[in-house]
C-alpha cells in the first residue's frame, strides 16, 4: 500500500485520487496507516484460518469486529468514501480486503456504513471488468474444494 502514493506521484494524471492539498493527503495517509497497521492484520486474522479450514479464535473474531470493522464503520459515518466525499487511493486499499470478506461469505451487514460504501464501490464503471477474473478464479477454486 505504500507504493500507491509513489505511483500516483510519478505516473498519475488524476490528482483527485491523491490530492496535492496537504490536509486532504493527511486524511488519506491516516486511513492508509490504519489499513496497514490495524485493518489488514485483523482481517487476515479471520481469513487465514478459514482458508486453512481452521476455526477462528474468539479473540481474533472480536478484534476483527471491534478494531477493524467497527472503526472503519465509524470512520465512514457521514462520508461517501474513506477520506471524504471523493474516491481516493484509500478506498482502493480497503476495497481489496472488503472484497475478500465477501468471497469468504463473511457477513458485513452489521456495519451499515461499510455496506453503503461497498455499494458505491461496486457502482464504479470499471468494477466488473477489474473483478471478473478474480470472481471466475474463486468460482473455480470452490469447485475444486467440493
From TrEMBL:
GO molecular function: glutathione transferase activity
InterPro entries: Glutathione-S-Trfase_C-like, Glutathione-S-Trfase_C_sf, GST_C
Superkingdom of origin organism: Eukaryota
A biological-process GO annotation: glutathione metabolic process
Location of the GST C-terminal domain: 21-144
Protein name: Glutathione S-transferase 1-1-like
Gene: LOC106163479
